[in-house]
Write a structure and sequence with these properties.
DNA-binding, Helicase, Ruva Protein, domain 3, alpha+beta, N-terminal domain of MutM-like DNA repair proteins, 11 strands
Length: 275
DNA sequence: CGAGTGCCCTGACAGC
DNA sequence: TGCTGTCAGGGCACTC
């Protein structure tokens, strides 16, 4: 069990409690959704109380090599090499903090997080119940991490496309058969993406510095203007929950009342062709 | 309390 | 060449 000898990070509200990690031992390395959670103990036989939480955001990289730029956290451990871990985060969307006594009050998303998508706790029945409670657009609800953990914008689009569910459908209106399909699609997409070591659009790298290969398997995300791989209709891009959203207008039927496609803020004409 | 919006932050890129 | 504006997105803070 390695102990934290020193933490260097810029001071601020997001990092104010990091120094609580100093002198404690890392009892485990766990993950909840997109959060890394490291329970800390004050002695090898103690029960974990504080939890060191790392969220890498979109551009965060955690690894043993010192980055050439955008270093945010330096974590010095006792014991053998590697004895220093670095967090690089160009866009500063990451978070790193200690939750005293594991209290997630400052991280509401973590506190209310749904089951792990690849675990046994993610059931069709539970997923259906979560959707039935909300009239938010189904994509917005999925992105909230509450019905299921770990689904971000790319994989939400892919799963909805596979299940033939329009992202603007009110969650409670998704038919039972499509809830089942979406549940399966989320599992399939995430399992395949993990297998491919993720999706590198721009910055993302694995812990070994490699790009993620799932980019090549994307069917909908980023394919606006391209033919749908299933039916050939052009994929359309719209905005749902402030996120770029890619839909096949033929396979994914829009809910009644939704006018599609919704372009973003109508202050600027969209470019003629995709890149 | 659920839903929607604004914001953070930097790099890539388009357009002039 | 260099400037300006826009866009990308995970999660929190805030408003309605």
């Amino acid at each position: 069990m390695r102990a934290v000898e020193r933490v260097d990070a810029p001071l601020g509200p997001k990092t104010a409690l990091l120094e609580r990690a100093v002198g404690q031992r890392i009892a485990a390395v766990e993950r909840r959704g997109k959060f890394l959670t490291l329970p800390l103990v004050r002695s090898p036989s103690a029960v974990p109380a504080d939890v060191l939480v790392l969220h890498l955001g979109m551009t965060g990289v955690l690894g043993p090599r010192e980055p050439s730029a955008h270093l945010r956290v330096r974590l010095r451990l006792d014991g053998p090499d590697p004895d220093v871990l670095f967090v690089q985060d160009a866009r500063r969307f990451g978070r790193w903090l200690v939750l005293p006594d594991g209290d997630p009050v400052s991280l509401p998303t973590l506190a209310a997080m749904g089951p792990e998508p690849l675990g046994a706790g993610f059931t069709v029945a539970g997923f259906a119940a979560a959707l039935a409670r909300s009239r938010a657009p189904v994509k917005a609800l999925v992105l909230s991490q509450r019905p299921v953990a770990g689904v971000g914008n790319i994989y939400a689009d892919e799963a909805l496309w596979r299940a033939r569910v329009h992202p603007l459908t009110p969650a409670a209106d998704v038919p039972r058969a499509k809830v089942r399909a979406l549940h399966g699609a989320i599992r399939d997409v995430l399992a395949a993406a993990v297998e491919a070591q993720g999706t590198t659009l721009y910055d993302y790298r694995t812990v070994n510095g490699e790009v993620g290969a799932y980019l090549e398997q994307l069917d909908a995300y980023g394919h606006d203007g391209d033919p749908c791989p299933r039916c050939g209709a052009p994929i359309v891009k719209l905005v749902v929950a402030q996120r770029g959203t890619h839909v096949c207008p033929r396979c994914q039927r829009a809910p009644r009342g939704a006018r599609a496609p919704i372009r973003g803020p109508a202050r600027r004409r969209a470019p003629e062709a995709g890149r």
